[in-house]
Structures are given as structure tokens and as C-alpha cells.
Amino acid sequence: MDLWDDQSPIVRSFVSDWTSFWVICDDENCFLFFANRGGELFRSQTSIDLFPNAFDTPVVVITESPSNLWDAVEIYKIEGSERYLMITSAQGVTGRYLRAWISDRLDGDWSPYAGTAENPFAGASNVSFVEEVWTDDISHGEFVRHNVDQTMTLDVCGDLEYLYHGVDPTAVPSGNPTPNGDDHDSLPHRLGVLTPTGQPPVTARMPTGGAGAAGGAGGEAAVDLCPRDAGSDNGGGGAGGMGGAGGATPSSPTFQMVEDQVVIEAEHYAYRMPGSQGHLWTLVTDTAASNGERLDLLPNSGSIWPSNDLLNTPRVDYDVNFTSTGTFYFWVLGGGVHGGNDSCWGGVDCVIIASHFWPEPPGTDLVWASKTVTIDSPGIHSVHIWGREDSFMLDKIVINKSSTAPEGLGPEESPLE
Hints:
Blueprint: E1 19-25, E2 29-35, E3 40-47, E4 59-63, E5 71-78, E6 84-91, E7 96-103, E8 111-113, E9 139-143, E10 153-154, E11 162-167, H1 181-185, E12 189-194, E13 207-208, E14 221-222, E15 255-256, E16 262-265, E17 271-273, E18 280-285, E19 293-298, E20 315-322, E21 326-335, E22 344-348, E23 351-352, E24 367-375, E25 379-387, E26 393-400
Parallel strand pairs: 5-10, 15-20
Antiparallel strand pairs: 1-2, 2-3, 3-4, 5-6, 6-7, 7-8, 9-11, 11-12, 13-14, 16-26, 17-20, 18-19, 19-26, 20-25, 21-24, 21-26, 22-23, 22-25
């Protein structure tokens, strides 16, 4: 593979049928990703100083069936995080669709996310159209970005647009909905733009879809780093019953900030997600707790979760209408019976606070601990608590502008609307 005619090959090891090349760099290295239309994804790398030369021998990063991993590789750094989003194309029964993958390192492992024809990143099953349905084929695209450097940074909280191409289904040979090679290249392709639909999404959701252009594609597809599965537990009951926030915008009641403060009983969550090991924030009766109940992260098996593994970490969400902006103190009333279960992670809009909450000293009493968080815009934001050590006890959350810990069990809960 030659970059310029007068240069030596930048990748010296040939891979049969390689296609869909994508270059992305971190602070030290540049990575070349590509597929081979045989179910394999490859990676080669070189240092930024040596780019575009000295790419090492490509290694296989992912192996799947050819239909599940075909081509159209693209990778982005998610702005404000240490996470990367990769998109690849797959071949479905009626046409191509896009799959999503997540990793915390460009040279690390990739986990599939929104990766089936029934639940794709974007495909016929979750893209609707403003006018006529002009394609069942969602393939080969790229996000419109505000930056143009080698980091390929994507602002998932902004106004997302995704340019893609599709094929007119009437032009596809009968009995072969996803032709390849020369047959596929000779078909009439059209361009479309996927944009968000509905109300503005809660910050840090990753929708694509909506009113389209260049052929009128629109709809709704999503990769969500803080997912809310509508088939799972939506709502902790109490206080009017928090329930049903299964999409980008909460359909359940939302906590209302009053005079720069919001107070949340832990058991009145909008959504909770189990961890990959089966841990779940579980309702426990406790006469010493605020409102007589709290959430414990169970079972107690000695598990611990790092801050860079949010997709596998048990989580509980609260939707809050912030009426003011600026720096807030994020207070947590909680604790553990010993030093191995007395901490948790917290954050807003899927951005984790860098250091964990650690109510001290450990013991049976509930203790207040705080971190600071910045809210840049008024409106609805998602407040999260993630597990760090199992068996942590979570009783109450107070977000305000006071550096002084709330007294006792804290003020009364904020209104829900």
C-alpha cells in the first residue's frame, strides 16, 4: 500500500481483500484500522513522529462471521472521555446495517454495542423516513465533526449528523439483497443524512436519525454509553413512582431544582442497570435511613469496578431539571461497614467524576461525602451513581452550591414533575 508514488509502502504486510481504511491517532501513536470482508478487523500502528511510515505488521483485532463484520470501518474519540466509538457495517436479510463497538483504548479490546440487525447502530429496523422509504441499506458513513484533526474527536452531546449511503431496493438483484464486489459497486447509491428526532436528547446520549437530506433519510438509531433498556427496570417507585425513562428523553417525573438545590431519595430512581456480574442496586428497609429505605449494591461478593468500565458497572440514574448553572457540590449520603465496601462513583450526563465518593469513617452509620461538578446549561440532565465496591449503602443525594455538608439525614426531597 503506497501513500504517494515516490514513497515506499507504508504497510509492508499485504492482507488479502483489505478495504475501508481508517487512521486515528492518540497523543503518541497513529493507528490504521481496516477490514477484509471476511469477518476480520485489523490494526496496524506507528508513532506520530514516524507517520506515515513504519506501520507495524497488522494484527487481527476482531474476528466475526463475514456477514457480521464486512467493511465500512470508522472510529471516533468521544469528546470529554477516554472512550472510543467504532462503527462497522454488516449484512442483514434485507440490506446492510451499521454496528457499534466501544473501547477505552485504540490498541485495546472492542466490545460490541448496538450490534444486531434488530438493535443496530443504524439500519432498516430503527431508521424512519421523512417521505418515501428509498432504501433498506444503511452503510458506509461518517459523522460530521467540528474538528478536523487526527484525533477524530466526536461531540456526542452536540447536534449530531451522520452522512451515509444507501441503495435503491428496486435496483438490487432479486434474491440477493446485499450483493458485493463489482455487483454492489455498480448499483445506484444515494446519500442521506441521519439526524436526531423528537425532543433534544439528554446530554451524552448518542442518537442518529431524523429528518434527512440528499434523499430524505431520517429516523432514530442510538449508541448510548449510559443505556436505558426499556425491557429492564425503569423506576424505583415512591414519590409518585419514577418509571419509564427508556429513551433519550425522560418520560418519567423529573426532580426539580429549587433555589440552586435538588434533593433525591436514592430509592426514587428513574432507572437502574445491573452490572455484568449480576450486581444490582437493591431496595433495603432501614429505619435509620432517610425515608426509611436505602439502596444497597448486592450481592456482597467483594467485587470492585474501575472508572473506565462504565458499560459493565451497576448504575442508578436520576433525571434532574437544573434551573441554574455553574459549579455544584454533589453530596452523597452513604457508606459501608468496612473499608472494602464504602465507596461509589458518581457523575452527570455519563461523565464520571474523576475521584470516587468515600464516606468516612466506614461503619454502620451513613455519612455525607462530596465532589464538585459543573453544569454548563440549564435543563434536564442525568445524574448517575455507579458501583465501585459492592455492598455500598446509598441513601440520599443532595446537589447544591454549599460546601457545608447537609445536617443529619438532609433536607426533604425535591418536587417531581
